[in-house]
Amino acid sequence: MDAASGDLYAYAHNKMPCSRGSSIYQMRDWSVHSMGLICHQEGWLYYDRPGQVFYRSEHEPDFEHPISGVPVQRSEGLLAVQGRIREYEQWIQSRRGPHHREALLSGKLPARVRRETEAWKQWISRDPLEHQRMLLPEGHSVVILR
What we know:
By secondary structure, this protein is α+β, with helices and mostly antiparallel strands. Helices cover 38% and strands 19% of the residues.
């Protein structure tokens, strides 16, 4: 949604082609792609969207090659990326208005995304320091990033 509207590019100011899937959008110390998310925080953290698993790696992962790294707890991965995603969502709100995301989430969506919208809204609105134990339920992913 945000890539098609140009919002990801406007936020990132850096869009790179990728031979696998969509373009890569690089924002300071993190990047997103249709395959997942990579961020630098106490080493490298990679979220594999198709597998719905977070990995830690000593070496910078990329979206071009198979995943290598050590799987980490879902709660650890979600907590590590929540601040970046909240910052982006606040930027979207300032750019598009307070009801833009809600309008997108209430529109026509793939079934998998539609099933996860309530969990997404709850997760993104929580203070990560106060609610570490109340993250997305198992079986839900961060597919809204697409």
